[in-house]
Design a protein that fits this description.
There is one protein chain. With 352 residues, the chain is α+β, with helices and mostly antiparallel strands. Helices cover 22% and strands 31% of the residues. The protein folds into two domains: 81 residues; 254 residues, Jelly Rolls. The strands form two sheets. Strands 1, 2, 5, 6, 8, 9, 10, 11 and 15 form a nine-stranded antiparallel sheet that branches. Strands 3-4-16-7-12-13-14 form a seven-stranded antiparallel sheet, with no helix packed on it. The chain is globular. The chain binds 2-acetamido-2-deoxy-beta-D-glucopyranose (NAG) (8 copies).
C-alpha cells in the first residue's frame, strides 16, 4: 500500500513536470525564462523526493536483513556463554518493530551452553520455518533470538529434548526471565518465518494453519482464573494492533481461547478444554480462512471467531509464561509436533 502511494506520488510529480514543459513551450520568451527556473526548481524537488523515497525503501529492505545477519553470526558464540545478561543478539520480537528487552527481571544465573552429547531440538522438530525467542537478554538490550540454521543445533536449559524415550522438545521459561519491552511476561517461544528466513507476515484472507501436539508439563505457581497460566500458541497481529489477536492459554485445570486486548474478534474468552490436567497431551489446530480463525483441540471443543481484516498475521508457539511473580519456578510446555499448512514449502491446507 505504501509503495503504491509512493508510485502514485512519483507519477503525479512526473505529470506535473510534463505539464510545466508543455506550458513553457507555448509561452512568450519573457515568461519562458521564468518558467525554465520554475521547471528547474520542480525537477530539483522531484529528484530530491525520489532520493527520499529510495532511501526509505532501502532502509525498509536493508535494516531487517542486517538484524537477521547479526543474529546468525552471533548464535554460536552467544549460546556458549554462561552469564547471559551481557550476551547480545539483535532481535525482532513482536510485530514489525524491534522490541527492546526490559531489564526489570534479569536472570543472572543462566547457563545456555549447548550439551553436545545430547540430540538438539532441531533434530526432533522441523524448525526450518521458525526462530526462537528466549527469556534472556540479547544484543542491544533486546531478548535473545536464535534463527536457522543455528537453531538446528541449539540445546540449552530453556529449549532441549524431552527426557529419554520421548520424541519431543521442552520449552522452559523461568518466571523471572527477561521480557520484551511490549510484555511483562517472559517466553521461550517460536516465531514463524518464511522459507527464505525472513519474518512471516501473511494476509487474513488466506488459508493457513498451525497444528501443535503438546503437553503443559509445568504451570507457574501463581495462577488463578483469569491470571497466570501459560500461552501455548498465538495468532499474532502484525500491523493493526501489533500484538496477539488470539491466544490459546492453558491453566492448571482448563484451556481457553482468548482475544488480544486490542483485537476486534467476535469471541472474548471461550473454554476449549474444560478439564485439563498437566501432562495431558492435546492437538491444537489453529486455522485461518477468509478472515475467520478456528481453534480446535482434540480433547476439547472447536471455536470459530472473526479476526481483524486488512491485517497481517503470523503464528507463534511455545511457553509464554503469564505471571509476574518473582518466585523461583516457571512454565514448561513439551512439544511433540509442530506443523504449518498452506505456506510455500509447508503441508497442504487444511490439516487433518
Ligand atoms: C564454545 O565452548 C566450547 C567448549 O567450552 C569451546 O571449545 C568453543 O571454542 C566455544 N565456542 C565459542 C564460539 O566461543
Ligand atoms: C553449563 O551447561 C553445560 C552443558 O549442559 C555444562 O557442561 C557446564 O558445566 C555448565 N556450566 C555451568 C557454569 O553450569
Ligand atoms: C548431556 O546430555 C546427556 C544425554 O542426554 C546427559 O547424559 C548428560 O548428563 C548431559 N550433560 C549435562 C552436563 O547436562
Ligand atoms: C551487538 O550488535 C552490534 C550491532 O550489530 C554489534 O556491533 C555488536 O558487536 C554486538 N555485540 C556483541 C557482543 O556481539
Ligand atoms: C476495532 O473496531 C473499531 C470500530 O470499528 C475500530 O475503530 C478499531 O480500529 C478496530 N480495532 C482493530 C484493532 O481493528
Ligand atoms: C473432560 O470433559 C469432557 C466433556 O467436556 C469429557 O468427555 C471427558 O471425559 C473429560 N475428561 C476427563 C479426563 O475428565
Ligand atoms: C500473582 O499474580 C498476580 C497477577 O498477575 C499479581 O498481581 C501478584 O502480585 C502475583 N503474586 C506473586 C506472589 O507474585
Ligand atoms: C520442514 O518444514 C519446511 C517448512 O515448512 C518444509 O519446507 C520442509 O520440507 C520440511 N522438512 C522436512 C524434512 O519435513
Amino acid at each position: 500500500m505504501e509503495e503504491q502511494a509512493l508510485t502514485a506520488l512519483i507519477l503525479r510529480q512526473r505529470e506535473a513536470a510534463a505539464a510545466v514543459t508543455i506550458l513553457s513551450l507555448s509561452l512568450p520568451n519573457k515568461k519562458r525564462s521564468l518558467q525554465r527556473k520554475k521547471k528547474i526548481l520542480y525537477w530539483i524537488a522531484a529528484v530530491s523526493a525520489a532520493f527520499v523515497i529510495l532511501a526509505v525503501v532501502l532502509l525498509a529492505v536493508l535494516v531487517p536483513r542486517r538484524f537477521s545477519q547479526n543474529q546468525s553470526q552471533l548464535q554460536s558464540q552467544s549460546i556458549n556463554t554462561t552469564v547471559v545478561t551481557t550476551t547480545t543478539f539483535a532481535i525482532i520480537t513482536t510485530g514489525r518493530t524491534n522490541a527492546a528487552a526490559t531489564s526489570t527481571t534479569t536472570n543472572t544465573n543462566t547457563n545456555t551452553s549447548t550439551n553436545t552429547t545430547e540430540p538438539s531440538p532441531g533434530k526432533i522438530l522441523n524448525l526450518s520455518a521458525w526462530e526462537l525467542q528466549l527469556p534472556i537478554a540479547g544484543n542491544m538490550s533486546r531478548v535473545a533470538i536464535i534463527t536457522p540454521p543455528a537453531l538446528n543445533s541449539v540445546s540449552n536449559q530453556f529449549f532441549q529434548p524431552a527426557p529419554a524415550g520421548l520424541s519431543a522438545v521442552d520449552f522452559y521459561t523461568p518466571v523471572t526471565g527477561v521480557t520484551t519491552s511490549d510484555s511483562l511476561n517472559p517466553r521461550t517461544e517460536l516465531r514463524q518465518l518464511n522459507q527464505d528466513g525472513s519474518l512471516a507476515f501473511w494476509s487474513y484472507q488466506g488459508s493457513y494453519a498451525l497444528q501443535v501436539i503438546l503437553t503443559v508439563e509445568l504451570f507457574p505457581a501463581n495462577v488463578s482464573n483469569g491470571a497466570g497460566g501459560v500461552i501455548v500458541c498465538q495468532l499474532f497481529s502484525a500491523a493493526v494492533i501489533n500484538g496477539p489477536e488470539y491466544v490459546v492459554r492453558a491453566y492448571p485445570n482448563f484451556v481457553q481461547l482468548e482475544r488480544g486486548s486490542n483485537a476486534n474478534g467476535s469471541v472474548d474468552k471461550q473454554v476449549l478444554v474444560p478439564n485439563y490436567t498437566a501432562g495431558q497431551q492435546m492437538k491444537i489446530t489453529f486455522s485461518v480462512m477468509n478472515g475467520k480463525l478456528t481453534a480446535a483441540v482434540d480433547i476439547g471443543t472447536t471455536v470459530t471467531t472473526t479476526i481483524d481484516s486488512a491485517d497481517d498475521y503470523y503464528f507463534k508457539a511455545g511457553s509464554y509464561c503469564q505471571t509476574q511473580e518473582s518466585a523461583d519456578n516457571g512454565c514448561k510446555v513439551r512439544i511433540f509436533s509442530i506443523q504449518l499448512y498452506g505456506f510455500p514449502g509447508a503441508l497442504a491446507f487444511p490439516p487433518n
